Amino acid sequence: GQNIDQPTEMTATEGAIVQINCTYQTSGFNGLFWYQQHAGEAPTFLSYNVLDGLEEKGRFSSFLSRSKGYSYLLLKELQMKDSASYLCAVSHFRDDKIIFGKGTRLHILP
Amino acid sequence: DVKVTQSSRYLVKRTGEKVFLECVQDMDHENMFWYRQDPGLGLRLIYFSYDVKMKEKGDIPEGYSVSREKKERFSLILESASTNQTSMYLCASSPGGGGNQPQHFGDGTRLSIL
Predict the structure, then answer these.
(1) Are the CB atoms for B103 and A98 separated by under 8 Å?
(2) What's the CA gap between B29 and A15, in Å, rounded?
(3) A residues 12-71 closer than 8 Å to B (CB)
(4) How many CB pairs under 8 A join A and B?
(5) C-beta separation of A85 from A25 below 8 A
(6) CB B102 to CB A33 under 8 A?
(7) Any idea of the CA torsion for A30, A36, A39, A43, to the nearest 10 degrees?
(8) DSSP letter string over B18-59?
(9) For A38-96, what is each residue's pLDDT tens digit?
């Protein structure tokens, strides 16, 4: 089977740093996506990790450890507009499907 | 930029009606997907298609069917709508050639079945 776990909700302060964790158990793992979804809107692609290590993209970074089945999304210098749900999703070698976690709703306080 | 367009943002239908949700993408993507998104359950795959006239069941296909007659268009059909199909429906597309390509989503259709 496959299982993706991430916290349901998190709260952080404007200007701070927050780390959203994701653990997964799946066969045929290919890579891991992070998406951002604002309330009432479509998910938008943030990052994709296929190799171990940290990928940095502006204020957002994503980390992957294949051996541990673990990823995190790091958001720096938080802004109010970062209030959204963050979806962790895994892809497989055998097909082009992506399996999504249930998402982490991030609340930013002023 | 990839554009995935869903025909309606909001739709209200009655129990037992046949409902069509349309999705069009403009980037010549091989793959197209239909999801529903419910609070606490996340995104769940209903059906996907990797080529014209090809379709595969996702995790929750019961009560739904799909049609892909042209590469750019993927339709979701609720054969006989029921109240438990009230949900947000999201269409997505991606290039073919392996699971390392991000999916691009439409804005979603919020469907209410009365």
Answers:
(1) yes
(2) 39
(3) 30-31, 33, 41-45, 48, 50
(4) 60
(5) no
(6) yes
(7) -50
(8) -EEEEEEESS--SEEEEEEEETTTEEEEEEEESSTT--EE-S
(9) 998 999 999 999 999 999 999 999 999 999 999 999 999 999 999 999 999 999 877 78
Structure tokens at A50: 């296929």
A99 to chain B: which residues are within 8 Å by CB?
A: 45
φ/ψ of residue A82, rounded to 5: -80, -5
Tokens 């943030």 sit on residue: A46
* CA R_g for chain A: 13
CB B24 within 8 A of CB B73: yes
A51: CB partners within 8 A, 6+ apart: A64, A66
Q: Which two tokens stand for residue B22?
A: 């349309």
With H, G, I as helix, E, B as strand and everything else as coil, classify residue A56: strand
Asked if the C-beta of B105 comes within 8 angstroms of chain A's C-beta atoms, the answer is: yes
**Chain A: closest CA distance from residue B29 (Å):** 12
**Partner-chain residue, chosen from B30, B40, B102, that has the shortest CB–CB distance to A45:** B102
Q: How far apart are CA B50 and CA B55, in angstroms?
A: 7
Per-residue pLDDT tens for B70-104? 999 999 999 999 999 999 999 999 998 766 889 99
